[in-house]
Amino acid sequence: MDGGARITVERQGEAGVPQYQANVVHVASLVSAPAPISPLQKARILAEALPFIRAFHASTLIIRFGGGAMADPVLKEGFARDVALLRLVGMNPVVVHGGGWRIDELLRTMDIPVREHRGMRIVDEATMNVIEMVLDEINQDLVGLINRFGAKAVGLSGQDGRFIHARPMILPPEESGAPAPELGFVGNIEAIDLDVIHLLLSRGFVPVIMPIGVGADGTAYRIDSDVVAGQLARALHAEKLIIMTNVPGIRDADGRLAFVLTASDAEALLRKGVVPADEQPRLIAALASMGFSRIPTNG
Questions:
Q1: Which residue, 217, 222, 258, 285, is most buried by CB atoms nearer than 10 A?
Q2: Helices (H), 224-279
Q3: How far apart are CA 103 and CA 54, in angstroms?
Q4: What domains lie within the chain, and their CATH numbers?
């Protein structure tokens, strides 16, 4: 599948029971270069869009930018244009980006071994230096593109103003009882200080955030971008969490795409190990954005 897919996580459900509505759309259909359209077609598009613009005016949208769209210049430019448009029509987009594909590429170029455990990257000092360098490069690129399309974007690391407080991630022992390896400079979020985000949004800026947190002693930690997006959505009471990825979506126990999942359904899929390891962080991020802190996983 080229490009990627977008999964929109919405607050829904009766009697306070949250559901996840996953609107999976091929990224290329969203951000590819538009074909010329007539004035009549423009008018129809605007008429259809107006109710949504009104409904989401002043709403906060957390967008986790990742997948193949990050590596495709046309899709990346289209994404930046769409983010700028969201801001210009009165919404408050907040972008969180990853960069794993580029990190792996540069590590190989520099002959630095890529080490993983249970699908999680082990980060030593040399790897952390590469991660920070790559994320900073991607961040500046995205900020420049969004600014080019008329919005005002500002790049941020969790170290700026120490707004993402992190602690080292410690894995549980293996099933055999053997201790799990240390992951190095890989962290979990302890808390998010929203002052800098509130300030930027109040002044009409688009925060573009790289997933780096800072410990109490000033140590920088790499944090999964899905986790950062989910926690930010929760902390900011965001109207929507949008996760862009390369997979079509979450599949249920029967292998069918699950366009709507209740919280209990999502937890059950994670507990049973139905969700592939590389897709688990996205579903966990969706649950975290709804306030679920104890999320079961199988292994």
A1: 285
A2: 225-235, 263-272
A3: 40
A4: 5-31+58-289 (3.40.1160.10)
Instruction: State the DSSP H helix or E strand holding residue 287, giving kind and residue range, or none if neither.
Output: helix 280-289
Residue 74 in 3-state DSSP?
Answer: helix
Give me the residue label for tokens 């962290």.
Answer: 187
Residue 88: enclosing H or E segment and its boundaries? helix 73-88
Report strand pairing: 220-222 vs 212-214: antiparallel
**What's the start-to-end Cα distance of the chain, in Å?**
28
CA-closest candidate to residue 7, choices 67, 53, 88? 67
Q: Which of 192, 239, 224 is nearest to 59 (CA)?
A: 239
Q: How many CB atoms lie within 10 A of CB 137?
A: 14
User: What tens-digit pLDDT sequence spans the chain (299 residues)?
Assistant: 334 433 333 444 433 333 333 333 333 334 444 556 777 887 788 788 888 888 889 999 999 998 888 889 999 999 999 999 999 999 999 999 999 889 999 999 999 999 988 778 999 999 999 999 999 999 999 999 999 999 999 999 999 999 999 999 998 888 788 888 899 999 999 999 999 999 999 999 999 999 999 999 999 999 999 999 999 999 999 998 888 877 777 887 788 887 777 778 888 888 887 887 777 777 877 777 776 544 444 33
